[in-house]
Task: structure prediction
Amino acid sequence: MSTKNASKTVKIDNMRMKDIIAQLTDIIYLLCDAKGNDTMIILNQFTNLSAEERNSLNLVFSHDVCK
Result:
């Protein structure tokens, strides 16, 4: 596998992981009616994402903003 193909595969895998984490966040936040802060605590327990990685996802918790 060439370096270009390997790099492309890593980027695709990263995009998939970001999508999975965003979906997990939606499930916790929307279906469980959790607060944004509680959702982040749960994400911390189930993932090994750094604060920088979580920030790069640009997660917005609209229920917390509207209240």
In short: The chain has a mean pLDDT of 77.
